[in-house]
Amino acid sequence: MRQDVLYLQSDSSSPKTPVLAMRIIEDGEISDGPDPDDWPYNTVLEAVRDGWRIVKFPDVDQVVDEKRTYGLGYEFILERYG
Q: Which terminus of the chain, N or C, has fewer Cβ atoms within 10 Å?
């Protein structure tokens, strides 16, 4: 079995918020995925419904002060095995 990893970034910590950016590691290859109009998921919740498991929720401590952002913001990390 091989692990796939999906990074989804949004502008909120809610899984129902629209995805702003994505990166995927699938079959051992790293990709930014298709063009944004063709992304397979518009929200994190859609990815979960398709079998992805959330392994890391956004670290909201890093986005509290907009003047000092230290991370990527609201990034969800998901995984699946296939």
A: N
Residues 78, 5 contacting (CB under 8 angstroms): yes
* One-letter amino acid of 66: E
CA 64, CA 82: separation in Å to the nearest integer? Answer: 36
Q: What is the mean pLDDT of residues 62-74?
A: 62
SS3 of residue 38 by DSSP = helix
Residues 6+ apart with CB under 8 A from 22: 6, 7, 8, 9, 32, 33, 39, 41
- Give 26's strand partners: 29
pTM: 0.84
